[in-house]
User: Fold these one by one.
Assistant:
Number 1:
Amino acid sequence: MADALLDVDGLDVVYDIRDATGRAVRRLHALSDISLVLERGEAIGVVGESGSGKSTLARTIVGLVTPTKGHIRIDGKELPNRRGSAARHGIQMIFQDHTATLNPFQTVGRILDEVIALWRPGMAKQQRRQQAVSLLGKVGLDAEALERHPHAFSGGQRQRISIARALATEPRLLICDEPTSALDVSIQAQILDLFADLKREGYALLFISHNLAVVNRIAERIIVMQGGRIVEQGDTSATIRTPSHPYTRKLVASAPRLSDRGTLLASVQARSDNPEEQEKTR
Ligand SMILES: Nc1ncnc2c1ncn2[C@@H]1O[C@H](COP(=O)(O)OP(=O)(O)OP(=O)(O)O)[C@@H](O)[C@H]1O
C-alpha cells in the first residue's frame, strides 16, 4: 500500500519454549498471519486478553523479536529486523515499565541530552538544552525537571519523561505497549490526554491495551487479537457498538461500563485533579 506509514504483512512469530537446561522442548505460535496497515497520523488500538500476542506484535515491529515469516514495511520499504533500525526509521516504543528507559543515575537533562546529541550530532550544547526544554514542554513538564533524577517524580511524570525521550528521536510512529496500565486511574486519564494531543500533532500511534475504554478514547481503528490472530478489525466505535466476532462480543460485554461508552473515561476525568501530579507537573 503506497500511502501506508506501516504495513505489516503475513507476520508469524514462533517462540522456542526451553526447559531449565536451555533445551528447546516445544514451539509456541505467538503470532499467526498478522496483517495490518497504519496510515500516517492514524491511531490504531490493539486489544486482546493476556497472552493474545499484543506485546509480541509490538516487539517484533521494533526488532526486539524476530519473525519466522512475513514482512514489516515502513513507507513501503522493508524494515530490517534489527535493534535500533525501527528508531532510525521513525518508530519508537513506549513501555508500561518506564524504568526500563530511564537511567536512575542520570538527571532528566542528561537522559534527554544523550538522545538529542545522538540524533543531532552537530547541534550545539545550548541548542540541545533548548530542545530538551521544548520536549519537556510538549509532555507537560517544565525546565526545572532537567536538574532532577527520575526518582524525584511521580509514576505519571516518569512516563511523561520517557515519552519526551522517545520524542527526542523525532519519530512519526509511537508504539505504546500498555503505557498507562501501571498508573493510578486519575493519572491514566492525564497521560491519555497527552497521547491524544500527540496524535493531534500528527504522530501515528499503535496503542496496545487490554482496556477497551482506553482504546476507544485514543484510536479511530481497533484490532482485536485472540490466540495470536487478528479476529476482528475496523472502526473503533462501530466495532464496540456492534462487534461481529464472538470473542469481541465477550470483550465488550466484560468491559466495565462500556455499554455506556464514554462514561468510564468521563468518570476518570472527573477524578483527574490529582494534587500530587498537578503539583509536581507545574
Ligand atoms: N520470550 C518469550 N518466549 C517464549 N514465549 C513467550 C515469550 N514472550 C511471550 N511468550 C508467549 O507468547 C504468547 C503471547 O505473549 P504476549 O506477551 O505477546 O501477549 P500479550 O497479549 O501482550 O499478553 P499481556 O497482555 O499479558 O502482556 C504468550 O503465550 C506468552 O506466554
Note: The pocket of adenosine-5'-triphosphate is lined by residues 15, 17, 28, 30, 48, 50-56, 210 (CB under 6 Å).
Number 2:
Amino acid sequence: MKLQFAMDTVTTEAALELAAAAAPHVDILELGTPLIKAAGLSAVTAIKKAHPDKIVFADLKTMDAGELEADIAFSAGADLVTVLGLAGDSTIIGAVKAAKKHGKGIVADLIGVPDKAKRAKEVVALGVDFVEMHAGLDEQAEDGFTFSTLLDDGAASGVAFSVAGGINISTIASVQQSGAEVAVAGSAIYSAPDVGAAAAELRAAIV
Ligand SMILES: O=C(CO)[C@H](O)[C@H](O)COP(=O)(O)O
C-alpha cells in the first residue's frame, strides 16, 4: 500500500517545507484543494520541481470542464488529478481524455456520493485509474460519522481504491487490511509537532 501525504496548507512555501520533511517517507505528495485555490497551479509546478521522483497529486475536485481543468494541471506537473465522482460522466470522460494525452492518471474522489461502491465501478469503466473513498473534513466532524464505512465501501467496490479522511496511526492498519492501494493522510502528518517523524511512523505501520 502506498502512502499519500495531503498537504492542506495555503501557501507554496508552507507546502515546500512540509514536503521536504515528509518526502523520504511517502510515495505521493498531494496538493490539497485549499492550497491550489490559494496559490494556483504554480504550487504544483514548484512541488514537482522540488520532488521529481514523487507522484504529485493535484486535488482539483473537478465538477465541470473535466478535460480543460485536468489538462492545465497535468501541464503544470501533476501526475494524478482528481475529478469528483458526483460529476457527470461527460466531465469524467473529458478528464480521462486529458490524462491519456499527457500519459498521466485520473482519480475519482467519491466524497458525497451516496452509493460509493456502485459509482466506483461506473467511473472505473469510464477510465479513471482508481477511486478515492473519501470523507471530507466537514463530514468527519458530523455527528455519527464512522470511518469504517469507507473501508467497507472500498472492499465492496471490487475496484482499485484509496482511502482518505481521518487516517492516523490507530487506523492505518485497518486501511491496509481493507485492500486499499493508497492511504491518504493529511492532518495526522501536517499537524504533528515533527512532520517527518509522523510520516515515518505511518510508513512503519504499513507492512
Ligand atoms: O481532501 C481532503 C479534504 O477534502 C483532505 O486532504 C483529506 O480528507 C485528508 O484529510 P485528513 O486531514 O483527515 O487526513
Note: The first strand starts at residue 2 and ends at 7.
